[in-house]
Specification:
The protein is α+β, with helices and mostly antiparallel strands and about 110 residues long. It has helices at about 50-60, 85-95, and strands at about 25-35, 40-45, 70-75. A hairpin with a 5-residue loop joins strand 1 and strand 2 (about 40-45).
Length: about 110
């Protein structure tokens, strides 16, 4: 067994999700719509050279039993997301819009329970 100092391989560092190493394909997030569903759900991630390869690889990896009818492949660097720590500041303004709450609407008796 050789020591790390004599190893022919150079030390590598993990690349952050926002940057891709020159030798690494971009990361793709995969969403699949099921046979009986109307919405896509996130099923995993994979590396691929382009969108076409990402969809083909996702088909092979995530839909082995023909359970999907549609696949979305989104390059991870193109996704913008809010932080859970910012949820208060993000959602509090909606509480000021009381007209959005159903308490302001009279429901006719013909409608029944909603």
């Amino acid at each position: 067994m050789s020591s790390p100092e004599s190893s022919p391989y150079k030390a590598t560092e993990a690349a952050e999700h926002t940057e891709t190493r020159k030798t690494e394909w971009p990361l793709w997030e995969i969403f699949i719509r099921g046979q009986h569903g109307l919405s896509h759900r996130h099923v995993g991630s994979l590396h691929a050279a382009d969108a076409e390869m990402a969809i083909k690889n996702a088909r092979d990896v995530y839909t082995r039993r023909n359970e999907g009818v549609s696949i979305w492949a989104v390059e991870a660097s193109a996704i913008a997301a809010s932080s859970p720590e910012e949820k208060g500041a993000l959602y509090e303004p909606a509480n000021d819009k009381v007209y959005r709450h159903p308490t302001f609407f009279d429901i006719p008796d013909e409608v029944g329970a909603m």
